[in-house]
Amino acid sequence: MKNFIVFTIMATVILGFFPGMVPAADYGFKLATNQNALEAELDLVVDMSDSHLFTGISGLYDNDDYKLLFVKAMISDQVLLDGLTAGLGLKGAWGEAEKRRFEADVLNAGFSCYIGYDLSKSGLNNLPVTLSSGSFISPEPLAFGDTEELIELTAEGVWKVLEQAAVVVSYRYIEIDFDSRPKSQKCDNAGYLGLKFFF
What we know:
The chain is mostly beta strands and 199 residues long. 10% of the residues lie in helices and 68% in strands.
């Protein structure tokens, strides 16, 4: 219960306090799935003077193998050329994962990075596609509950078919190391297909 309260406070601060400091913000909602898993994400982008603040909360459910809730906050900016952005920030994970037929508690904080390229801002002006990749690493000192380390790698393509809607194709690799003896680990990688809406 204590872990849940800490995580809820962290989510409230990220999604409530920081965006409230700046009035100009854009919202996005993504729903993606495959035959085993469902992912939902609500994110918010705040325009700051020279950069962007990305905050968001997302949930991932995979056939009882794991149920995870993520909260993130990241600063990003354009780098090197038009349409190429990179970001660094913090991310947290909370939930449950199956460990040898038993439910293990997941509570992790760590570092995340992102790189994305908007093809519509390149020479391909008529192609409203954004390609991106991200990572989340929670090393042992920032892993709590029953976990020792958590790694998440993602890749995503977003094709904006309408002004406020896009088709999303994504891939996720997730690896959770448990602090048990003998050592145990849960790995999963899967592709997703879904929709994203912008407000």
